[in-house]
Amino acid sequence: MTTRDRILARIRRATSGAPAADPVPRDYLRVHGTRTPAETADLLAAHLTEYRARVHRTDEDGIAPLLARLLSASRTVLVPPALPPHWLAASAATRVHDRSRSTPHELDRVDSVVTGCALAIAETGTIVLDGGPDQGRRRITLIPDHHVCVVRVPGQVVDSVPQALERLDPARPLTWISGPSATSDIELDRVEGVHGPRTLDVVLLGAQ
């Protein structure tokens, strides 16, 4: 039994005789406005740009040369197990595979990581990863300094957070990304790359 199992068992014992909670009202707006799929993609791109992510648009024919350009300064690139092989067909960077035995120091020596995503939220400019086969373990997107994330448009783009929550599995390891990792001190001096990648490139695949 893991520590998590023990904690959850204690919670279940402590709440076993408690009365059922009142239902949570869901009368809030699910979406703020009506948009076409193209307008939703444009809103996502605008918010990502505000967060200082670099946004690119391409189709299946253009993704290989685009990724090759984005990785042109990278000697090594981390690759999740189910990343489509043709995406990196034009890149000269050496592939490093997602392995459970890789140490943080080994991952820190990798220049870039390329992943897919679970979905993206237009109204907040947020990308969500859930550890799927084309995304790999959470840590491979937190340690390398450069993350290239591919979002399939329109299939993986939703308008709002309520729509996103309906499509996500809460039992999976969810990572919510709104721009490159950054923090500020008391004087609001921004420092990027503190808790994750310093540079975030988002590729909207299928949007031209």
UniProtKB/TrEMBL annotation:
Gene3D superfamilies: NagB/RpiA/CoA transferase-like. SUPFAM superfamilies: NagB/RpiA/CoA transferase-like. Residues 97-205 form the LUD domain. InterPro entries: FTHF_cligase-like_sf, LUD_dom, NagB/RpiA_transferase-like. This is LUD domain-containing protein. It comes from Streptomyces polychromogenes.
